User: What shape does this take?
Amino acid sequence: MSRYFLRRAGESLIALWLATIVVFIGVRSLPGDPAIAMSGEGREPAANALIRQRYGLDEPLPIQYLRWISITITGDLGTSIRTGQPVTAEILSRIPTTLELAGLAGLFAICFGLPLGIAAAVRRGTRLDYLAGSVGLIGLSIPTFWLGIVLILIFAVWLEVLPASGYVPFLEDPIQNLERMILPVIVLGSALGAVLLRQVRSGMIGSLGSDYVRTARAKGLTERQVVVGHALRNSLITVVTILGLELGALISGSVVTESIFLIPGFGRLIIEAVSRRDYPVIQGVALFSAVAYIAINFGVDLLYSYLNPKVRMGSTAQ
Amino acid sequence: MSPVLDVRDVSVRIRVPSGHHVQAVDRVSFSVEPGETLAIVGESGCGKTMLAMAVLGLLPSGGEITNGEVLLDGEDLRTATPSRLRDIRGRTIGAVFQEPMAALDPVLTIGRQIAEVIQRHEGLSKDAARGRALELMSLVGIPDPASRIDQYPHQFSGGMAQRVVIAMAIACRPRVLLADEPTTALDVTIQAAVLRVIDSLKHQLDMAVVLITHDLGVVADVADRVMVMYAGRVVEEADVLDTFAAPQHQYTRGLMGAIRHPTRTPPRSRLTEIPGMVPTLLAPAQACAFAPRCPLADDRCRAELPLLGPIRDHHAVACFHPGVPA
Amino acid sequence: MTLVTADPATFQGKGVARRLMSRPPTAIGCIVALTIIVVAIAAPIVAPYAPAANDFDAILSPPTFAHPMGTDELGRDTLSRAIWGARASMLAGILATLLAVVVAVPIGLISGFYRGRIDGLTMRATDAMLAFPFLIVAVLLTAILGPSLQNAALAIGLVQIPKLIRITRGEVLGLREESFVQAAIADGAPDRSVIFRHILPNTLNVLLVQATVVLPFAILAEATLSFLGLGVQPPTPSWGVMLTAAQPYLGTAPWLAIAPGMAILLTTLSFNLVGDGLRDVLDPRLDR
Assistant: This one.
């Protein structure tokens, strides 16, 4: 297990390193003065010269990369061109909002995808199965932003039961906060829920047809023990892995959702930065996403190896 | 002595995706008494596994018993509720299947899997069940149970895994043990050991054993009686020695000719092969299903269905030309 | 034991088409998808109005006989714009898919076939590429290159590449061990020949299924990018652009939002149905 852990850690670090190179190349390719693009400062000649020296902008590219990475790794991502605030601080201030949205959306996806997927597999071929399958398919095919617009149309404009947009911090007013989260969570969680539904269903169909489930039934176990204790437990491993991979989709999804519902989160920051050509923020956002994503994947891998005894113990037959 | 398991005139029909029905089992009867091993023999596709599944109440969806009774200590399982069947499975009837590694849940320790049966049927606490599991592991011949009880299936070899499955099957001292090809997936050297375990358990627990196999070597080793099946019907039934000494049905003779006997098979002779394949019947047979492959077949065989009838003491055969060597 | 030297017959053209159409959902999906493609190609003929044709007498009018899906704030016919919008989506989808396939498949083939260092490098590179969620890539790219349909397609295609490389590589790794490939290698066939004549044809199944997954994603992605202002720029009609424009008028002219959204939904749904059907037919071992 520790050997596996070390190997995966090493691979993640290499991937991370390669990702930073990609971001660096991206930032250097941005139009305009690279000094301003990387640091967000340096509009006067004096300051500009200092920055050029700090980032090694007159030196060969590899040196520039080294300087850039040594500055960045300390957490200094420059200053936002728009607000004049440190980029790192700005990103960090937006994260909790997006975390709340993504967390609730994930919860929603599990509550809606998991039971439906299990039910569809257990009652395979019945109307429930076709219904669940259709729901899954539509959930996959529906554009997130359109779902958002339609829901706003129905619930905020026509029925007037929910607010159309806006955000209130949780600590300020929990009820208002949650009220405004309902529609965004549904929108963000639906696509993930649909993927989950289909994966759980196909995983369960596989497990339910397996020999060990036949053994479990031959042992006289109750249906619940068979379905949950054996079939589900085995499918969950693959489901967890897939969920982990889809977490990146949550980041993308949050961009759209936050834009429609005017939630000031990490996702919306990305869009704002692009439209305002706030390059240091774009740089910070790209780096942050890469790090977060690689870390999540690494975590999912560890979780998988923990759940799967074959990987955890190594296989030595006796 | 009255039989523990008495299967009377059972037929099983299975609906296949194309909409047709397949007659997997056609009016089969057999019975087993405590301490006795009945071997059900036949090639793949002859219906023996479906018969076992029918007894267990584990037919696949689309399968149903269309005729007969399955009497377990007098109780007809065919009319039992699913809940009653679940109580019986694992407690009164134990089952062992072909691929031991696939039969075990890969993510649970084998200790948990054995204890699970005991907890389910006898309501023991986790610790008590675990203690019983350790005893059972010794009983089936797993060395050093204490160190292996918390291991996972992939850490076991095929033979050891099958012993675990057997332990799970007999955990609650069932009256009947159903073993469907228990040694087929194992090394030849391990096969004998596993059969020994089943045999010794049979005596210790006074169980009736139904052993399904296509391997006559296994039959010769441990069976008391033999029932030969073909295309869903029984074609011959007798004590094991009788069957080997004087097989009455051409199919049985064919099966025997396909094994090499250390003394009886002439050296450097060719093993006989039965030309053709076991047919899949879409409806109950109206004539002898083996006729197309049988050198003795005549017009009567192709027009009429031979019924199982006694030919000697404890020896029945379903054939119009029994006992005639080809 | 006879040595198996013949290729397994995995892609049986006609048989596949027949089996596909025998399932109602897949058949419907195929018909709808084909219709949309045809409509996209024949937009100039099919659309009742030109996409930029203004009719200032009929601004923001609800669905009428003259304008079955209403008009927008500049008096343009929504139905026609939706039809023309199909072109943008199809174009982006096809470009992106082509890019992904053309780049990923050769890399996957080489990586899987030769293994060793090349494979290791490829795996790390794909790990790094996979580290960027699609929108971040799109954002970076459009920041550098400017927003347009082509750049959107580029971003979409780029994001699909690592996944496709992994899948191709996986297939190649498996196929390498098959007896017919081993036989060809033992025969002394040059690597190129083994790859093109034996391995590639047998990966086509999986790749085809993947293409049907990538295409709907690409269409959705193009719409999303246009919606966010990172793809097709107004006044060129694209379903995403239409939806952005519809947002301020949700209360007064809800039909503006419904038409483009339904169009996207229908398109992705039909392609997903075809994809599901193909997967059932070509790759039944994938538990569905």
User: Anything to note?
Assistant: Chain A touches chain C through 57 residues (CB under 8 Å).
